[in-house]
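Fill in residues.
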C-alpha cells in the first residue's frame, strides 16, 4: 500500500489523469479541502498530463539535432507536470499503472502499490489505438495517440531521411497516413512543413522526392460534414497531399501497403516507406473488468455520469457512453466535453457525499477547430464553418486558456510562448 495513502480514510479513486480525471480531481479537491473523512487518489501511469490536441505538432516539429534535450523540450510543450497541476490541492497522485478493477469487492489493483479499496471510483482511462486486427499494422505502423507516439514519429522521420542521405539513396519516399479523421488530416498537413525543413537538412527536394498520401475509408475527411471535408480536400491539394477515398488498409509489412475498396476488392499494392495510423481508437481494455458495458465498450451512465449498474462508479471522456437527449445521439468523445464531464463528476461525488441532489450533464459544444497546416485552420460549429488564420488564433487562445487553468498566468504565458516557438518553426 502507498505510504502517502492513509488507511483510516475512505478512498475516492480516480483512474487516469487526462482531461476527465485531472479536472474531476481538481473540482473534488476544491470541495473536500477541509474534509477529514475522504482522500482523493489520482492514478496515472505517468507523472505528466498530456494536451493531446497539439500532438500533431510534436510529431512534426523540426529539430536541428535529435538530442534527448530537444525531445524533452518537445514533450514539455504539450504536457503539464502532475506536481504543477496538483499544487496545493489535497490529492494523492499515485504514479502507477492500473492493472485490474474488481467492481464486486470495490477494489483496484495498481502495478506498484497493490490492491486499494474504493468508496467512489472515477473511470477516466481514455482510449487506445485500434488496429482492427489488420495484418502487420500494429507491428509496422506508427500510431499517433500518445506523446510517446508523437516523439517516435518525429525521430523516425529524421532517421529515415538521414539514412537516405547517408546511403545516397534516391528513391521517392512515400509516407501514407491511414485514417482521414481530424488527427490524420492535421498530421498530414503539418507534415508538409516538416518535410520541407528536413529537405534542407538532408539535401533532398521535398516536392520531387517525397509523396504524402492520406487514405480514408469513406468519401469525406475529418468527420464534420461535407463542407469541412471539401475545405480539407482543397487544402490537401494545395499542399500536394494525395487524398485516397473509399479505400481501406488491409495489410502493411513495413514496405508494401495493401488496400481494398468498399466491396473488399484489392487495389494494386503501394510501396510505402512509413505508415502513420490514425484510423481507429477503442476504449481502454481495462473497462472489460466491468461485466456490463455498452456495445461501444464504454460504461453507460445516468445523466449524472454515475453508472446505473455500478453505484458510486462514475465515468467520463472516452470511457463513458452518454446519451444526449437533446440531439438524440451519443455524446462525442472529445477533450472539451471530457473536461466538462470531469468537472461535473467532481461536483456530483461531492453532492452525493453531503446528501445533495446530483446535477445532470448537458453537453455544451463550443465548436471544432481543425489545424490544416501552418496557420490555416478550419472552424466548424453547426451551420457555421470558416477557414483561415482566425480559427488558428482562436485555437491558440484555447491552448493558452487551458494551460492558464493549471498554472499562474505568468507561467502560462511563458509556456504558451515556448510552444509557439516550437510550433511556428515549420510554418
Ligand atoms: C492525437 C489526438 C488529437 C486530438 N485532438 C483533439 C482536439 O483537437 N480536440 C478535442 O476535443 N479532442 C481531441 N482529441 C481527443 C481527446 O484527446 C480525447 O477525447 C480526450 O483526451 C479524452 O479524455 P479522457 O480523460 O477520457 O482520456 P485521456 O485524456 O486520454 O486520459 C487518459 C489518462 O489515463 C492514463 N492511463 C491510461 N491507461 C492507464 C492505466 N492502465 N493506468 C494508469 N493510467 C492510465 C493515461 O496516461 C492518460 O493520462 C485528440 C486525441 C488525440 C489522440
Amino acid at each position: 500500500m502507498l505510504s502517502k495513502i492513509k488507511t483510516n480514510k475512505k478512498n475516492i479513486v480516480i483512474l487516469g489523469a487526462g482531461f476527465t480525471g485531472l479536472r474531476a480531481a481538481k473540482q473534488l479537491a476544491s470541495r473536500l479541502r477541509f474534509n477529514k473523512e475522504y482522500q482523493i487518489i489520482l492514478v496515472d501511469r505517468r507523472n505528466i498530463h498530456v494536451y493531446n490536441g497539439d500532438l500533431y505538432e510534436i510529431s512534426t516539429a523540426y529539430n536541428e539535432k535529435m538530442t534527448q534535450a530537444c525531445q524533452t523540450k518537445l514533450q514539455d510543450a504539450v504536457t503539464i507536470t502532475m506536481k504543477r497541476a496538483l499544487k496545493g490541492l489535497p490529492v494523492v497522485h499515485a504514479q502507477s499503472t492500473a492493472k485490474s478493477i474488481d467492481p464486486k469487492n470495490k477494489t483496484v489493483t495498481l502495478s506498484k502499490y497493490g490492491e486499494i479499496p474504493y468508496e467512489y471510483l472515477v473511470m477516466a482511462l481514455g482510449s487506445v489505438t485500434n488496429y482492427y486486427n489488420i495484418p502487420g499494422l500494429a507491428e509496422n505502423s506508427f500510431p499517433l495517440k500518445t506523446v510517446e507516439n508523437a516523439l517516435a514519429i518525429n525521430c523516425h522521420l529524421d532517421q529515415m531521411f538521414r539514412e537516405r542521405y547517408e546511403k545516397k539513396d534516391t528513391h521517392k519516399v512515400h509516407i501514407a497516413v491511414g485514417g482521414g479523421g481530424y488527427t490524420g488530416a492535421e498530421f498530414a498537413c503539418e507534415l508538409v512543413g516538416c518535410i520541407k525543413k528536413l529537405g534542407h537538412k538532408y539535401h533532398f527536394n521535398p516536392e520531387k522526392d517525397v509523396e504524402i498520401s492520406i487514405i480514408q475509408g469513406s468519401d469525406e475527411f475529418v468527420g464534420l460534414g461535407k463542407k469541412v471535408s471539401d475545405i480539407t480536400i482543397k487544402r490537401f491539394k494545395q499542399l500536394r497531399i494525395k487524398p485516397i477515398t473509399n479505400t481501406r488498409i488491409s495489410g502493411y509489412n513495413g514496405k508494401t501497403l495493401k488496400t481494398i475498396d468498399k466491396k473488399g476488392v484489392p487495389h494494386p499494392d503501394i510501396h510505402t516507406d512509413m505508415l502513420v495510423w490514425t484510423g481507429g481508437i477503442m476504449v481502454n481494455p481495462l473497462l472489460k473488468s466491468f461485466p456490463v458495458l455498452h456495445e461501444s465498450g464504454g460504461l453507460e451512465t445516468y445523466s449524472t455520469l454515475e453508472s446505473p449498474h455500478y453505484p458510486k462508479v462514475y465515468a467520463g471522456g472516452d470511457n463513458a457512453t452518454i446519451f444526449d437527449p437533446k440531439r438524440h445521439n451519443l455524446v462525442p468523445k472529445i477533450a472539451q466535453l471530457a473536461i466538462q464531464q470531469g468537472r461535473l463528476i467532481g461536483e456530483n461525488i461531492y453532492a452525493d457525499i453531503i446528501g445533495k441532489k446530483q446535477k445532470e450533464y448537458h453537453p455544451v459544444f463550443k465548436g471544432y477547430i481543425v489545424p490544416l497546416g501552418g496557420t490555416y485552420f478550419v472552424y466548424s460549429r453547426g451551420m457555421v464553418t470558416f477557414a483561415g488564420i482566425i480559427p488558428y488564433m482562436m485555437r491558440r487562445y484555447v491552448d493558452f486558456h487551458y494551460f492558464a487553468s493549471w498554472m499562474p498566468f505568468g507561467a502560462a504565458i511563458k509556456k504558451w510562448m515556448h510552444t509557439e516557438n516550437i510550433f511556428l518553426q515549420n510554418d
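Residues 16-21, 43-46, 52-53, 55, 97-98, 124-126, 144-145, 183, 284, 286, 317-319, 333-336, 338 surround flavin-adenine dinucleotide (CB under 6 Å).
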